[in-house]
Amino acid sequence: MTIQERQKVTVRPDYRMLHKLFGFDPARHSVRTEIYAGVTTFLTMAYILAVNPSIFSVLEPQGMPTGAVFTATALASVVGSMAMALYARKPFGLAPGMGINAFFVFGVCLGMGYSWQFALTAVFIEGILFILLSLFKIREKIANDIPSGMKSAIGCGIGLFIAFIGLQNCGIIVSDKNTHVALAHFDSPSVILALIGIVVCGLLVVRNVRGGLLWGILLTALVGVPMGVTHPGELFSAPPSLAPIFLQFEWTHLLSWDMFAVVFTFLFVDLFDTIGTVIAISLKVGMVEKDGTVDGVGRMLMADAVATTAGACLGTSTTTTYVESAAGVAVGGRTGLTAFVVAVCFALALFLSPLFLAIPAAATGPVLIIVGVMMCSNTTGVDWDNYTEAIPAFVTMLMMPLSYSISDGIMLGTIMYVLMKMGAGMKGIRQISPTMWVLFAVFVLRYVLK
After folding, report:
1. Reduced to 3 states, what is the DSSP secondary structure of residue 175?
2. Is 69 a member of any domain?
3. Which of 446, 425, 397, 439 is nearest to 149 (CA)?
């Protein structure tokens, strides 16, 4: 009996609504377990409510209020998780993705010099393209055509990039006129607090504490109160207004090379982040058929695409499926009811904005560093003994933090990949997919004509 056939089993009348909405089967699932799993997943994801506004706070002088970003973050998480619950009926939570939010702020807005409205427009276009790619089932084909070593390198490169940003936001790494970057003096309360936060978050992760990153943020912020770094205020309040960033798009540079590069980067990162997360967690819990296909993968990808589009309208970066969903799945979450509980928790968190917005960068920065560590586990997917694979992967990883740009890392790595394979002769040339040839040509033109 396949997974789809099992879901058609007749259920008791009192559970028919849950079955219809979330794919819940009382013979195999427990309401209590699904709720517990949803709360667990939320606790592991909730750090984004503090980290995302913190990252976007540097854009406040450009008219993007941090409070509005908090509201957009929570609402995008609600919409994304609800789409996963009701349409895909799977136990995955969604929220604005880590790494890609840093590219939005530090790559597009600060690095390229474009407005945040331009970046939101790129996210919106990416979401629409994702919907089309999901409808025509092209998304999986693109994923298969990109070399596995490049996919792994991109994940690691983003990890290094956001860790570097975390160190800068904490004040641990500072600018230097001679060496460009340098280690700060440990005489600042915020730097000391950040170091404490790295240790606290690290130990909580080492001890496998559920929601360790969130608790690490809260504990570090609490320690920062007597140090004068954290300035607590009210606990509850109405959500900050979304008006300043709602539906704020800019179509001026729609046909520019930079718009293409930004949209492609958003698309590329979200593509592999989502597919990798969905496949990895599905394999762990048996949501995979005998032929290796993931049950309901098309609907999951569509839910992710809709969430990204909605998130752009709300005013935040790409919304994606969170790997932290594995925590809820590990305690028994199997249906859309788990994702529904995640959505409800994010909705309730809307009224805790003073708590999350009062958390200083010294408390959120350590989380960026720990998440960077987690993302660097992807290096195991690189064949380091094959230099036609290793050199492009290394260039991709190295250039992201050094150029302060995820897109430049991807583009330079892609160019290097094709050049290395060409240099290896016909055997290497045959390994270059049509997709990589097209990307190589486009990226070379981008740098030549820039």
Report:
1. strand
2. yes
3. 397
Cα separation, 271 vs 435, in Å, equals: 15
Distance CA 77, CA 245 (A): 16
Please check the confidence at residue 107 and state whether its pLDDT lies above 70: yes
305-326 pLDDT tens trace:
999 999 999 999 999 888 778 7
Q: Looking at the 3D structure of the chain, how many domains does it have?
A: 1
**20 lies in a domain?**
yes
Q: How far apart are the first and last CA of the chain?
A: 56
pLDDT at 272 over 70: no
Sequence-distant contacts of 379-383: CB under 8 A, at least 24 apart:
379/152, 379/153, 379/156, 380/152, 381/148, 381/149, 381/151, 381/152, 382/149, 382/152, 382/153, 383/149
Q: Is 8 inside any structural domain?
A: no
Quote the pLDDT of residue 197.
93
Q: What's the whole-number mean pLDDT along residues 273-278?
A: 69
Q: Which of 414, 449, 407, 444 is nearest to 107 (CA)?
A: 407
Structure tokens at 19: 């079955």
pLDDT at position 61 is 93
The Cα 436–Cα 28 span in angstroms is 44
Two tokens, residue 106: 């530090």
Render 306-368 in DSSP notation, one character per residue.
HHHHHHHHHT-S-EEE-TTHHHHHHTT--SHHHHHHHHHHHHHHGGGHHHHHT--HHHHHHHH
Task: Please tell me the distance from the alpha carbon of residue 272 to that of residue 252, in angstroms, as a whole number.
Answer: 29
In this model, does residue 2 exceed pLDDT 50? no
Supply the range of the domain harboring residue 335: 13-449
